[in-house]
Amino acid sequence: MSCSARRVLLRFTIVLIAAFGAAACATSEAPGSGDDDREIGSGDGGTDTTGPGPDAEPGSSSSDPCDLHEQTGCPDPDACDIEFVDFEEGQFTDQLACRGVAIPGREQSTCNGAEECAAGYQCISGHCRAYCQDDDDCPGDGGACTLTRSGSERNDDLLCTKDCAPDFDSEHENCPGGYSCYIRFVGPDDDRRAVTDCFETGPAGLGDDCEDRRCGAGLTCQGFVDGDGNVVRRSCVDRCRVDDQTCPSGDACRGFSTPTLVGNTEYGVCPE
């Protein structure tokens, strides 16, 4: 595989099932336009998955030349990683192979290809993500081992969401430059939970319409309903911590009827 091919941005399609909590009073988080329903990756199409099936056996195949999680089997400083047939088209095998490491990028690093991420990381949508086997491998309350390649038949190639603070007063310090922290929901319908993740910072500002675009740093897309429960508009509002944060207006942070909890921290929104 040529050096230039290795440096093409990997076109994984990594999908996470997402849903929005029901809001209290006359507002609700707006599905389809906010933080946490966005697909990660730059690939085309694929099946939505959140991890291996119930019959999957953990660990690498016996035919693999190296170990993805132990990072053994490759000469130093190479990394064990998923083998790609065509980076630009997102065509990959389900085998592992050794790759070079030009820049040892980690959670806060942007990247232009796999070789710009350290061993144990993969370049996804312009930033490095860590491989994982379970949630214990993903630091912080917001980190979750739930991201997987669409179409993958492996059961050991999950990646972490990123632990970060999504509120309006956050510095988004755990996200790479140009990215901000948002809340997303993961898991099956009967066991959804909130986690955090980094996405490219959206262009919509406070009070802007967010029907078809992501809100900016520290904001979330909120649906406003009429007396009959119909969403009449969606706009960006400040995301806040319910228990210990006052909104810029001086108002209290408002939680949802079904609390949005990341670990023990409850998040809500500031009144418009």
- Taken in chain order, the helices and strands follow as HEEEEEEEEEEEEEEE
Secondary-structure content class: mainly beta
Total strand segments: 15
For the record, give the distance between the C-alpha atoms at the N and C termini, rounded to a whole number: 54 Å
The helix content, as a percent range, equals under 10%
The share of residues in extended strands comes to 25-35%
Average pLDDT, rounded to a whole number, is 77
Choose one word for the global shape: elongated
Report the major sheet.
6 strands, antiparallel
* Low-pLDDT ranges: 1-60
Structural Rg: 19 Å
Quaternary state reads single chain
- Tally the helices: what do you get? 1
- In spatial order, strands of the major sheet run 3-1-8-9-7-6
Features:
single chain; 272 residues; mainly beta; six-stranded antiparallel beta sheet; five-stranded antiparallel beta sheet; 1% helix; disordered N terminus
Sequence-ordered SSE layout with sheet pairings:
Layout: H1 3-6, E1 13-15, E2 27-29, E3 40-41, E4 79-86, E5 91-99, E6 121-124, E7 127-132, E8 145-149, E9 158-160, E10 179-186, E11 193-200, E12 219-225, E13 231-241, E14 260-262, E15 265-269
Characterize the structure shown.
The protein has about 270 residues and is an all-beta fold. It has a domain at about 5-10 and about 40-140 and about 145-160. The chain is built from one helix and 15 strands. A hairpin with a 4-residue loop joins strand 4 and strand 5 (about 90-100). The protein is elongated, with a radius of gyration of 19 Å. The termini are far apart.
